[in-house]
Write a structure and sequence with these properties.
Oligomer: single chain
Order of helices and strands: HHHHEEHHHHHHHHHHHH
Structural class: mainly alpha
CATH architecture: Orthogonal Bundle
Length: 294
Amino acid sequence: MTLKEYFSAQQSVIDAALDRFTPAESGHPATIHRAMRHSLFAGGKRIRPILCISAAAAVSDHAPAAIYAACSLEMIHTYSLIHDDLPALDNDDYRRGKATCHKVFGEAMAILAGDALFTLAIQTLTRIEDADPARVVALIRELSFASGTVDGMIGGQVTDIESERLPPTAELLDSIHRAKTGALLRASVRMGGIAAGGDAAQIEALSRYGEHIGLAFQIVDDILDVEESSQALGKTAGKDAAQGKITFPAVYGLEASREMAQEQCRLSHEALAPFGNGAQRLHEIADLIVQRKS
């Protein structure tokens, strides 16, 4: 199976599970459920849940808890995008090529849709069937810390907002993106390892892999914002520069940023050595992250 076929197959599994775990549009109160589903099923690549499932497969051939962890990650990621697009933050009208949640349902409902997806993510982890309670707690801990204020996604978003128009420095850039983007990507593979019952050494190897691909992902994201069109990206291009964001091209330049992304990809491959052939998909995803055009 090619990587494209693998992604397509996993996306179908993930979307079916998300559909099961998310209240139906007709469920009362219907408006919030329509808003949640508008963004959750807007056509995302499902990178984080696929990383989670692939990490679980590197550890064990049988990891039924991984789909719950995978869906919880996509719910958190989607909630962050809904809030990111709000006028008070990045003020974007399009996401994944479609009108953003607040443009369709209004700002108040978009805020609540994001909040609801966060709570649904935690609920989803509590629904894991026949699971060791300690493992469920570990998954909730991993997701909540990666999403939080101390070295987590929200903390990175705060630093990103407060650093607008400041002189771009390597130190500030690193502090923003290791938290804003890197924390949840790192948690994706760690949660896959935890869901599969990985030991400490395996979780540590996955952590290193996640750190490197998280950094590579953000570097490439910053490059694409400069080089690609809004149509190709499915969101407004050039907003980083317009808003005075601190990005890798702003600090290092485009060519050096490309070299940094390649180096992070190389290091991510090295981190997977303990898994042998079992980590094939993780290797392929690392390459995809660096080579993507959207």
